C-alpha cells in the first residue's frame, strides 16, 4: 500500500475515544494529531499533543480527518477541511439540518474529495448478511421493514434529540437494506426528560419501491434493544444488531384440513435458521473502508456511506420532526 496515511481526529468525547483506538491500530494509517477545544477528558490522546482548533490540526499536515465533534459543529469543521483539501469521515448525522448537510456534500463533491458519514450500522455483520441475502432473493418480494432501537438515555448527547441521534441509524440502514429512498413519512414524538428535544419517536411510512416501514426509537427504555425485522414473501429475517445475530423464520406451506380456514391464504410457521458468520468490529470495518477509499483502491468507494446518502438521511429525519409538529404525513 506504500506510505502510511496521516490521519487526524476532531472531538475527544465518548465516540472520539473509540475512533482513536481504531485509528491507532489501523494498518497503513498513522494517527498524527487530535483536537478538541474542551481538552481530553477521556485520555484519548495517548501522549499526542491535544490541539484546540481545526486550523491547528490542518497545519500539522494530514491526509484525512475523522470528525467526532457534536453535530452542531459539523458544518463549520467540514468546510474548513474541504477548503484545505482534506478528506473527511464525519460522524452521523452529517449535519444538524438539510441546508448544512447539502453545503457539506456539495463542497466535498466540487473539490473531488472523499467524504463519508459514520452510519456504522451498515458495517454491522448481521445487517450485511441480511442485505446480501435479500439481494440474492432469499426473501422473495420484500413487504415491510420494522426497526426497534430503544434504551436508557445516553449521557453523551446534548445537542440533538432522539430523531437525529438514534433514528438516523434506522433511516440509513432501512434505505440501504431496501436499496430505496423514502417517499412518505408520518411520525409522533414526545419529550419526557425535561430537555428541549424529543426523547421518543414512532414513525411509519413507505419507500419509493413500495416497501412499508416503521421505526420505534427512544432513550426512555430501561433495557437496550436493537432489532431490524424484514418481512417478505418467503418469511422474515430478524437482525439483532446488539449481538450481530441474524435469524430467518421461513413461511411454511401446509395444507389445512380445517374447512373454514382452507380459503384463507395466510402463512404458517416453518423452519427457523440462525446463521453463523464472522463478526468483525463494525467500527474497524468502517475505518478500513474509508482508508481504502482515500487510497483509491478499486471498489472501495462503493463501501463507504457517501455524503449524498448522509444528506438523504438528514432530509428524512427533518421530515419526521416536521410531521410530528404539523401532525400530518410528509411527502419527500
Descriptive labels:
alpha/beta; globular; nine-stranded mixed β-sheet; 8 helices; 332 residues; six-stranded parallel β-sheet; single chain
Lay out the secondary structure:
Elements: E1 5-10, H1 14-25, E2 29-35, E3 50-51, H2 54-60, E4 64-67, H3 74-83, E5 87-91, H4 98-110, E6 115-118, H5 125-135, E7 142-150, H6 162-178, E8 182-190, E9 200-207, E10 212-218, E11 225-232, E12 235-240, E13 245-252, E14 268-274, H7 282-295, H8 307-326, E15 330-331
Parallel strand pairs: 1-2, 1-4, 2-3, 4-5, 5-6, 7-10
Antiparallel strand pairs: 7-11, 8-9, 8-15, 9-10, 11-12, 12-13, 13-14
Helix pairs in contact: 3-4, 4-8, 5-6, 6-8
Summarize it.
The protein is of the alpha/beta class.
Overview of the structural elements:
- With 332 residues, the protein is an alpha/beta fold.
- It has 8 helices and 15 strands.
- The protein has helices spanning 14-25, 54-60, 74-83, 98-110, 125-135, 162-178, 282-295, 307-326; strands at 5-10, 29-35, 50-51, 64-67, 87-91, 115-118, 142-150, 182-190, 200-207, 212-218, 225-232, 235-240, 245-252, 268-274, 330-331.
- The protein has a 9-stranded mixed sheet. Strands 3-2-1-4-5-6 form a 6-stranded parallel sheet, sandwiched between helices.
- α4 (98-110) links the parallel β5 (87-91) and β6.
- α4 (98-110) packs antiparallel against α8.
- The radius of gyration is 21 Å and the shape is globular.
- The chain starts with a strand and ends with a strand.
- The model has no long low-confidence stretch (mean pLDDT 93).
